UniProtKB/TrEMBL annotation:
Catalytic activity: hydrogencarbonate + H(+) = CO2 + H2O
Sample GO molecular function, one term: carbonate dehydratase activity
Pfam families documented for this protein: Carb_anhydrase (PF00194)
Major subcellular site: membrane
Cofactor(s) required for function per UniProt: Zn(2+)
Protein name: Carbonic anhydrase
Amino acid sequence: MRAHVTRLLLVSVWIVCTGAADWCYQTQVTCDSQCKGPDSWHELNGDCKKNRQSPINIVTRKTILDHKLTPFIFSGYQEAFSSTMKNNGHTVTATVPQSFTVRGGNLESTYKAVQFHFHWGVNGSAGSEHTIDGEQYPMEMHIVHMKEEFDSLKNALMVKHGVAVLGFFYEKSNSANSKYGKLIEALTKLESTDATTMLSGLSLSNLLPSEENMTNYYRYEGSLTTPNCTEGVVWTVFEHPIPLSNEQLVAFTSLKFKDGKPMIKTFRPVQPNHGYPVYRSGCTVILLSYTVLLACACSALGLSRLY
Ligand SMILES: *[C@@H]1O[C@H](CO)[C@@H](O)[C@H](O)[C@H]1NC(C)=O
Ligand SMILES: *[C@@H]1O[C@H](CO)[C@@H](O)[C@H](O)[C@H]1NC(C)=O
Ligand SMILES: *[C@@H]1O[C@H](CO)[C@@H](O)[C@H](O)[C@H]1NC(C)=O
Ligand SMILES: [Zn+2]
């Protein structure tokens, strides 16, 4: 009789713990949250278990120098725009006008910007998705782009190389980055899941490193880092991190997951890369005395890089 009761209890606990579930990050995985953490995302979509998944650890000594990885040509990135920012329960997203485009950098064609969002840790601790030689940065921004001919991400994801993501790391600095003041202030209005706010006077180039500091980057073919984990995504991960003060990094953890708990560790762990190539740009910025020439001296000089 007692054994029977125990089994009943076990069965009911099992049912409670495996109810219909949404995806979530590892920190959210508890019995009562009923959500599927990164290890179980493939149960929601088999693509999450394929072999070209993102993020990855980039082993710099294994990267392949590719002279075709020239500087990017951005259009609209310097214009001020109004963005709708949202706490979507997994991160904070911000819309970007689709008239903003990027080309060059050995991309197949022109891609237009759709949105950007962030991945972070706890109060400035490790939180980026990609890692470089095992080092995890405090935060990472993804600017999601789709090929010009598409009208939605959903459609662009159905085609190999339909989506290109630019990834930027953050590093902790001693002083606040004033260019992020507005964006970080807006986070206070986004504490609860599904909250939205309009932010005007934002410009992408303000949020990014200078163009000279965007010539060094890594390129590989991977996937979305959240379910559906769709593959065929063209990844660019920039080497140069963006500085933010500790306080600014902490501000992101004021956001809340759906269950009201602090939104922390919003990153997928690195995925096995199965030996697929990761390329690196080989650009050296040449500054001439009268003109600032952003050129790609892809010679054997290797001036600005250590490897
Ligand atoms: C993060 O910092 C805030 C304020 O400094 C603190 O209240 C909170 O407990 C910290 N969170 C964690 C998980 O350490
Ligand atoms: C590029 O980055 C370096 C190192 O962080 C910095 O000292 C330099 O000012 C940056 N260049 C520009 C033009 O912002
Ligand atoms: C995710 O995958 C499921 C099943 O394959 C599909 O029904 C759904 O439309 C996909 N969602 C997106 C946003 O592509
Ligand atoms: Zn992302």
